[in-house]
Give the backbone structure.
Amino acid sequence: MHEKDGPGRSAGPVTVLVPAAGRGVRLGADEPKAFVPVGGTPMLGLAVNGLMASGVVDEIIVMVPAELVDTATALVAPAAPVRVVVGGVERTDSVRAGLAAAGDSAYFLVHDAARALTPPALIARVVAELRAGHRAVVPALPVVDTVKTVDSAGTVTGTPDRGALRAIQTPQGFTAEVLRAAYAHPEGATDDAGLVERLGVAVRTIAGDPLAFKITTPLDLHLAEAVLDGTAAVRSC
Ligand code: C5P
């Protein structure tokens, strides 16, 4: 990782890895989360449609539970060029499976299927930053709640300065070299950029978008439904 950020890395295809193999325990639905419909379309379908609508994506690889490969293929195949592979137990296992299935690409985005309403313009902005020479790019939003650290008994041990905190979204974008190096040791991070940070690579934040929220709980699902049917207006940045 000697190369510094800078101009000159603009060419080359963009492959998106879409982790969609989670069980979605917190959502409490009967099927794995990415297959739960929002406004009549499974989250995975909405996420892939958004990626294709961005106009900046060359290939999409979707990682799903083994028993849902056929279902996923039927869902996303019309939106070629999309491939479906089997994911893993943890999200990092799923991303690693997608990376193994991918060919030579200049850039990778990793984008949660659960961020089904992500505006195509945000996807395009992440790719533009990569093409401008940044090796790792993540969308970020200011944190609205005060955040505290606690010990195992739940007693507060600290209050980080909220002004320095950001909530990180996807798509997260990387050069192929950086993402593959990060996944050589994919333990112990809750996002892909967390692995990249350990390499000493600068991770650039850009303005995220409220509509890129991750559908995690039943309340999130209600919000997503309301956004799609127009009863909740969430302004895209
Ligand atoms: O569980 P969480 O909401 O953080 O998952 C984020 C994304 O990662 C979801 O789209 C989920 O389907 C995916 N995932 C995966 N493989 C896992 C766990 C989560 O692809 N083993």
Remarks:
- Residues 8 and 133 are 6 Å apart (CA to CA).
- The two ends are 33 Å apart (CA to CA).
- Residues 1-6 have pLDDT under 50 and may be disordered.
